[in-house]
Design goal:
This protein has 385 residues and is mostly helical. The protein has one domain. The chain is built from 15 helices and no strands.
C-alpha cells in the first residue's frame, strides 16, 4: 500500500496537470507526476503500472511506432518521439488509472479542476485575442490546439452544470459562457464541429430535462457570443458558413491527399512519428501553400502516414476501446451523478474524435495528455479494471 505522502504527491500532480492542460502547460504537472512515478517505483519496488483494459492496445501502439521509427529514414527523431510518447502515456495514464481504481470519488474532484483550468485558459486566450488582434490563442499551443482544449472543457462544463445547484450552478454557467466565447473567437471550425458533436451526444445520452438544460447552455453561449462579437460578428458567421466549402478548404484537402500518398508509399509502418513535416515536401502539390505544416491536419491520416496501416490500426483500437468502455460505463450507471459524468466523458471523447478529423492537435505531448486522461477514466470505470 502506498504511503500517505506518496498518494498526496500523486493527487497534487494529477490536479495540477488537469488545471494547466487547457492553456497548454500540462507538462508542468507531468514533471510533478514524473517525480511521483520514480519515487513510487523506488518505494514500492515495482514498475509503476497497474494492469488495465488498455494494456494490449497501448503496447501494440508503442511497439508499432517503435518499429516504424527504427526503420524510418529519420530514425533519431522518430525513435525519440515514440520514447517521449511512451513516457507521456506512463505519466498521464498510469497514476490517474490507479487513483480512480482505488478511489472512484476522485473523479468528482478532478473534473472541476479541469473545467476551471479551461475557464482561466479561455480568459487568457480572449485577452490575447483582443489585445493582439488575432484569433484567440495561448502562447504555449496556439490557436487550433487551444480550440481543442476549450471544446473539451466546455463539454465537461455541460456535465458539471447538469449536476450542480444553487450558486455553484451559476458559477459553472458563467464558466461555460467564458469558455464558449474563447472557443468562438479561435475561429476554428473543426473545434466548433467537435463541440456540436459533443453537445448532441451529451443531450442524447441524458434524460429529457438534463438534455434541455445542456441545449439551453449551448444556445445561451452561442447567442451571447454573437452579441459580444460586435464588429467581428459578420466574420464569425461567414467563417461558419464557409465550413463545407471545398474552395475554402482546398489546402486541407491537399494535405490529406499528400498524407494518403505517403501511406501508399509506406503502407505497413509509415515514415515514423513526427516525420510528416520532413516527408511532406516530396508529396506537396505544386499549387499548395508554401508553408510546410507540422501535421496533415487530420489525426487519422497523420497516424496512417507516420505509422502505416499498423500504426493507424493500433491507434484506432485504442480510441474504439475508449468509446466502448465509455458506453458500457454509461449503460451500467444508476446514480444520476454517475450517469451525467459518464455521458459527459463519452460526449467529450466523441467530440474530440470529430475535431481530429479536421486537425491533429492530439499529436503533441501537451494535448495527448487529455486523451490518456480520458482513457484512464473510462478504463477505471470497467468492473474488471
Amino acid at each position: 500500500m502506498r504511503p500517505g505522502w506518496l498518494k498526496q504527491w500523486s493527487l497534487i500532480g494529477l490536479l495540477l496537470t488537469a488545471a494547466l492542460f487547457s492553456a497548454g502547460y500540462a507538462t508542468i504537472g507531468l514533471f510533478v507526476l514524473l517525480g511521483y512515478v520514480v519515487l513510487d517505483a523506488v518505494v514500492m519496488r515495482r514498475f509503476p503500472w497497474r494492469r488495465s483494459p488498455f494494456d494490449w492496445p497501448i503496447g501494440a501502439f508503442l511497439a508499432v511506432f517503435l518499429a516504424s521509427g527504427w526503420f524510418s529514414p529519420f530514425r533519431p527523431l522518430a525513435v525519440a518521439s515514440i520514447g517521449l510518447g511512451a513516457l507521456t502515456v506512463l505519466l498521464a495514464f498510469a497514476p490517474l488509472y490507479r487513483q480512480l481504481r482505488e478511489d472512484r470519488a476522485f473523479l468528482a474532484r478532478l473534473l472541476p479542476w479541469w473545467f476551471g483550468g479551461g475557464v482561466l485558459a479561455s480568459v487568457w486566450a480572449l485577452y490575447l485575442h483582443w489585445s493582439a488582434g488575432r484569433p484567440a490563442f495561448t502562447p504555449a499551443i496556439g490557436q487550433n490546439a487551444v480550440a481543442t482544449t476549450l471544446l473539451m472543457a466546455l463539454t465537461l462544463g455541460l456535465g458539471l452544470y447538469s449536476t450542480a445547484g444553487g450558486l455553484r450552478r451559476t458559477l459553472v454557467a458563467t464558466g461555460c459562457a467564458l469558455i464558449g466565447l474563447g472557443l468562438l473567437f479561435t475561429y476554428t471550425r473543426g473545434a466548433w464541429l467537435g463541440f456540436a458533436a459533443s453537445a448532441l451526444t451529451f443531450s442524447a445520452l441524458n434524460q429529457r430535462r438534463q438534455a434541455w438544460q445542456a441545449l439551453a447552455v449551448v444556445l445561451l453561449v452561442a447567442f451571447g457570443g454573437l452579441i459580444a462579437a460586435g464588429s467581428e460578428r459578420d466574420d464569425l458567421i461567414r467563417r461558419a458558413l464557409e465550413t463545407p466549402s471545398i474552395a475554402i478548404n482546398r489546402d486541407r484537402i491537399r494535405l490529406v491527399r499528400a498524407g494518403l500518398l505517403i501511406l501508399r508509399d509506406h503502407l505497413v509502418l509509415g515514415t515514423g512519428m513526427n516525420t510528416f513535416a520532413l516527408v511532406y515536401p516530396e508529396y506537396r502539390s505544386p499549387d499548395a501553400f508554401a508553408v510546410v505544416p507540422p501535421t496533415a491536419h487530420n489525426l487519422y491520416v497523420n497516424m496512417a502516414a507516420e505509422g502505416g496501416m499498423l500504426g493507424v490500426g493500433a491507434f484506432t483500437a485504442i480510441v474504439a476501446l475508449a468509446v466502448v468502455l465509455g458506453w458500457k460505463w454509461h449503460q451500467r450507471a444508476r446514480a444520476n451523478v454517475e450517469r451525467v459524468q459518464s455521458a459527459s466523458i463519452l460526449a467529450l471523447l466523441i467530440g474530440t474524435l470529430v475535431n481530429q478529423v479536421f486537425d491533429a492537435t492530439l499529436m503533441s505531448v501537451h494535448l495527448g495528455v487529455g486523451l490518456w486522461f480520458l482513457a484512464a477514466i473510462v478504463a477505471a470505470s470497467s468492473p474488471h479494471g
